[in-house]
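[recover] target loaded
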């Protein structure tokens, strides 16, 4: 077949006759191959040229992933973790073929990772700090025909996620008290026998003090003071999410972890309980909250109607089958955990508005009383009244200093609601 006449180049006056009848077909580079490499897996490649991509699932693992390799004819390795930039790991392999790479245009500066001799062995470490989902992509470019290379991947152990065990409700019968769930509570009544309703400025919070130290600030949503149609309950316990007996009211919970248990001696140690109202809407002199509050002991019981655990109300024995106590048991204090004492009418000033951003013990009115769990074991009325006691020398509101905290004492009436209805 006669060849075609072609000019050597645009400026040359000479022509060549080109016969392409025996020329090889146009070169088609091999397709890029992508395959999965499992943790602990190994890849062995014989003769090859072009690009291969290996993907490693890094999910639920954190730590160091190591790519181990044995490479003869050099290849270029690039790694990339999901969400991160690609990292050029350079050419790896023996340097017997270094000149061939230079001849095809690979800069000598790119070949510093080659090992003297026919082959190279080593490892490339990739660190992952979290257990989140991610993929490690390993790209291997072989510009020369390879005669053999081997890759393996070592992964950190997979994180075992242990699902939290949800404790089963205590095995109690309907209306039974749950043993060991006794807790002290404060109840602020929704209306006052003092002649006015409980007032509210809005967004009220409450500081709680235990033995001279502020231990908690109940938020607006926790306290629920603005809901003037409901009583407000504050319970000292670690149990959360339970409503008050026969209602949908979820009491505010504050920790009793530092409560002093005490012992029955002539002068048992007392807990000094204090509370202080906070309102960001306060302006000028202290606005007043006119109310009574009730202090008492409650416990979780299984409501026989709803089947839920609720906080027992000392005034609702008759609604819940006496919490399954017999008449004789009700006379014994140590088997009857619920009891209460009420305060006389009191007027508590809200803490000034700047206290919201700068609450200190030395400013704002704190009101309180003594609480001694040591007297729980008594059945005599006079001794039972000592479970909750007024602050010393209290007449109306007296500014006492208790455990370094200035606190206004509140009168407690001599009632005991152990048995009602």
């Amino acid at each position: 077949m006669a060849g075609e006449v072609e000019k050597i180049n645009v400026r040359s006056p000479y022509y060549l006759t080109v016969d392409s009848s025996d020329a090889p077909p146009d070169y088609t580079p091999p397709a890029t191959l992508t395959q999965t490499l499992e943790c602990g897996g190994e890849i062995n490649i014989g003769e090859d040229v072009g690009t291969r991509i290996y993907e490693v699932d890094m999910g639920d693992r954190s730590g160091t992933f190591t790519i181990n390799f044995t490479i003869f004819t050099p290849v270029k390795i690039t790694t990339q973790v999901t969400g991160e930039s690609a990292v050029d790991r350079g050419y790896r392999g023996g340097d017997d073929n270094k000149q061939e790479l230079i001849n095809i245009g690979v800069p000598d500066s790119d070949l510093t990772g080659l090992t003297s001799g026919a082959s190279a062995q080593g490892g490339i470490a990739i660190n992952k700090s979290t257990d989140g989902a991610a993929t490690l992509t390993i790209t291997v470019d072989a510009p020369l025909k390879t005669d053999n290379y081997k890759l393996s991947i070592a992964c950190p152990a997979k994180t075992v996620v242990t699902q939290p065990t949800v404790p089963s409700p205590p095995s109690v019968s309907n209306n039974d008290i749950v043993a060991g769930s006794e807790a002290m509570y404060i109840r602020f009544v929704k209306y006052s026998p003092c002649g006015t309703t409980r007032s509210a400025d809005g967004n009220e919070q409450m500081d709680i003090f235990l033995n001279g130290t502020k231990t908690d600030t109940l938020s607006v949503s926790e306290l629920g003071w603005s809901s003037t149609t409901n009583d407000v309950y504050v319970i000292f316990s670690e149990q959360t999410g339970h409503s008050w007996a026969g209602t949908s009211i979820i009491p505010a919970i504050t920790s009793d972890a530092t409560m002093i248990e005490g012992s029955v001696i002539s002068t048992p140690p007392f807990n000094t309980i204090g509370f202080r109202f906070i309102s960001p809407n306060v302006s000028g002199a202290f606005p007043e909250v006119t109310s009574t509050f009730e202090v008492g002991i409650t416990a979780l019981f299984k409501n026989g109607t709803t089947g839920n655990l609720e906080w027992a109300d000392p005034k609702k024995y008759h609604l819940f089958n006496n919490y399954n106590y017999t008449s004789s048991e009700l006379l014994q204090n140590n088997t009857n955990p619920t009891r209460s004492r009420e305060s006389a009418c009191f007027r508590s000033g809200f803490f000034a508005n700047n206290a919201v951003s700068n609450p200190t013990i030395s400013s704002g009115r704190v009101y309180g009383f003594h609480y001694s769990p040591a007297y729980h074991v008594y059945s005599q009325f006079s001794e039972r009244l000592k479970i909750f006691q007024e602050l010393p020398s209290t007449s109306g509101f007296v500014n006492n200093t208790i455990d370094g905290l200035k606190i206004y004492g509140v009168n407690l009436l001599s009632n005991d609601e152990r048995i009602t209805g």
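[recover] notes: DSSP finds four helices and 27 strands in the chain.
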